Amino acid sequence: MAGEPFVDRLVRRIEELENPLCVGIDPVLGRIPAHIREEAARRHGQNERGAAAALYLFGAAVVDAVAPLVPAVKLQSAFFEAYGGAGVEAFWQLVLYARQKGLLVIADAKRGDIGSTAAAYADAFLGHEAPVSAWADPDRYADALTVNPYLGSDALEPFVKRAAALGRGLFVLVKTSNPGAAELQDQVLLSGETLALQAAKLVDALGAKHVGRSGFSAVGAVVGATYPEDLARLRAWLPHTFFLVPGYGAQGAGAAEVAGAFLPGGRGALVVAARSIIYAFSSEHAGPEEFRASVAAAARSAALDLRAAARRAT
Ligand SMILES: O=c1ccn([C@@H]2O[C@H](COP(=O)(O)O)[C@@H](O)[C@H]2O)c(=O)[nH]1
């Protein structure tokens, strides 16, 4: 059963908290506070299971620190997959934990493949269709998933269909935040448009039938804050598309760069910050209280900055 669409739940939570910040959980074992690593090693040993436990305990501590403040977290699958089956299990345990704490959870796994395989990725991250859904736990899935548009519309459709059927969301890569993004995404095609604009048009077309009460569709776009001119241009082209905006904080973008992501009234964007929040503590020897306080303070400060940026949107 669909339930309320992800994007509508997201918009409501952002408005309730007056906060468009999404905390990214990208756990690197070597950067996790020593007390968490030691606890994980005591429980499971210094092995992949212990490493995965450390990622989970760290992620859960981040969730505890930010759950009252932010609408959503984004879990970067790569950092968990790095520890094999135990890491993948830790990823899903953390999805569940964050959802239980009232957060919306975005799985950042950037999936994309031919239709039949895309459907299997949708099964994995968003949930199964009936009758197989009877075998699965409906609460264990992510609320939304990042996907890659490179294979074209037939490869995205299984994700869109599943997101719409189950009340989940998608964020399609349109203009990424990394330094090499322009190499392919800014290429001008025979149509005279850039690849990024073609991806944006695909997002708009795929989402058109799935616009929720908030006025936004189930098919969102990833647009980096590190290319503020493109961000503002894409924002104007896609009034019904919700943006997931990485690049703020550790990658150098600030409130001025992010401002173009918002529609008039300050709606339409969720800004991601991972390293600048989750590693805000002073050293790996930070104790539990210093860890919690510094992560919460960094999230609060980013929230104020982004709230002001959203309010300035015209
Ligand atoms: O274009 C993109 C798409 C995804 N990301 C992801 O967002 C976070 C950003 O982390 P920071 O520490 O805030 O830089 C990370 O998980 C990336 O994989 C992105 O940065 N850019």
UniProtKB/TrEMBL annotation:
GO terms for biological process: 'de novo' pyrimidine nucleobase biosynthetic process; 'de novo' UMP biosynthetic process. Pathway: Pyrimidine metabolism; UMP biosynthesis via de novo pathway; UMP from orotate: step 2/2. The active site is at K110 (proton donor). GO terms for molecular function: orotidine-5'-phosphate decarboxylase activity. It comes from the Bacteria. Its EC number is 4.1.1.23. Belongs to the OMP decarboxylase family. Type 2 subfamily. This is Orotidine 5'-phosphate decarboxylase. It comes from Caldinitratiruptor microaerophilus.
